[in-house]
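During the reporting period, our protein records have gained a structure token line. A sample record is set out beneath this paragraph:
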Amino acid sequence: RNAASESFRILSDYISQLNSDVSLYSALQIVVKSKDTLTSEEWRMASSLKAEFERDGIHLPQDQRQHVRMLSNNVVSLETLFMENVTKGDCGTKNVTLKKDDVTQIIPLHYLPPTSPDEGSTISISTDESTILNTLLRHSHDPKLRKDVYMEYNKSIASNLDVLHALITARHELSTELGFTCYAHRFLQDKMVGGDSKQVNIFLQNLLKRGDEMYRREMEMILRVKKQVEGASGSDYNVVEAWDVPFYTNLIKSHQALQQQQQHGGGNGMHLSDLQFNLEKLVQKGMTKLVENLFGIHMVEVEMSPYERWDIEHAGTDDESNHGGKNGDGVRKFEFHHDEEGPLGTMYLDLHPRRGKYVHAAHFTIRCGCKPRPQFSSENKKKQHQLPIVALVCNLASRSDDINTGGAILSHGEVETLLHEFGHALHSLLSRTSFQHLSGTRAPIDFVETPSHFMEHFAWEPQFLRLIAPSSMLLDEGILSTLVSTRYAFRGIDVRTQILYALFDQALFGTFYPHGQQQQQQNPSLFHSTQFFALLHQQHNVPYAEGTHWHTRFGHLVTYGAGYYGYLYSQVFALDIWKTRFAVATSDVVAGDDDKHDDVMSRREGTRLWKDMLIHGGGKDPNVMLRDVLGRAPNVDTFFDRA
């Protein structure tokens, strides 16, 4: 990992050098002037590269370009340091000391970290153990325990406060040196909002307004239930605290689900908390069937050579049992093929935890797809294309009990997570662009999450769930209906939280955050990121715990800085596509379609999605692609609808 971080730094520096090469820029200017001779994708590629050059200061005098390069390197170093502090866990990591009996009432002892003999009746849990701590926050009836967990977890990595403030200043200095008003202005230039942060704010304020009543009702419900559960004791009796939200949303969801199940006649005694899915069934009968039905694509698992692996504890060995092979816990390989289009690419699945592994779920492009240069094309192939190679990396629990077929067991949330990353993979695998710079997920950041959010919808669709559910669940239609009914529970709170994070991100890297000393003196309450984070919570009536700084773990401030709104932006698009094109019994009258369909895995709609959107990667204006798929401009009006 250290080598990878250093390689990334070196590569970033090299790209910065290329983007300051005047001869390359001069050649590109000649190409851009020849617009009439270029295809639309070639023009988009040339324009994109020209803007990229200019965002790195190619238009500036030589001495100023050197200064810009130095500033850029400083930004990369700070970004890397922030993420290293988050992932390494050795900067600011703390322990939460709790009563062992209180913890083991919720989590069995064998799932907890080993305890030392001198701990006695207590147990210390590192703030790196996010899964354990979040489980306690959701399930512990003890408000003191929840508060202790929440406070310690959200006070760790304090060292990132200074790193973040330095990054804010460095990004702003770099951006203004390049002629932009702020970092957000620079970052948003090639996004769907066209460099206009006002459009981002209009979008976020629109969502705030539309979801306000729903948010208010949900918070009132939590407060009512809190009073019933905890009684009139303590100074926080009339207040919903930050550590109350995960517990009471989970408690109310469970109660509502039980009532819903009883109404649907669920009779085998199964509850939502009992729901578990089999990974092998999800892969072989779910994901495989999904791409076959939607696109006519065959997804086939193939053997890997030992030297192809990167699960390093076993790489280079010939013992198949060491790395799991097919159906095991190791890395797996799948080839994608279409009868008419031919081979489409390769996907690796690296789904289970191991020592030193990246701890989040992610899609990585190992090789982009593109049209090869003529001198590298073979003469004997009708259709030549450099095929993409991608990897899906998750940390799904390796617990392995017998749910009909054996193999790893997944929660419903893990099913949704894997389908989200699968959406990114399909975007990469199904794109066919001339340039790898525009391949697959190399699209504007406020559009690129659309395919992944779209794929999440299948995790809530009964037709798909029946493909992957254990037989015990299939015998109980009530449990399926109950699961689907819980999808939009506390949607108002979820969306309000995401809006707040997006506003925070825009403020830190936009024109609203005071970067200069004069502004600091005028409004000192806005200068420190923690104070500003607290102020945003207060303004939008979101619970906040004084003394915490959750945002020091917020890696998206680095990877999606000034672009976090894109998650909500893409969710709006994905939901609109789902409701308009895929939801069963949709009217489908837009774009001249008179017929309805009763299959959420419709080949007709899947082909439309592929040929009008996924195939273009980042090689076409997302606004045009969305209009092609929807038959109209996207619509935010139904985002809070439950149907």
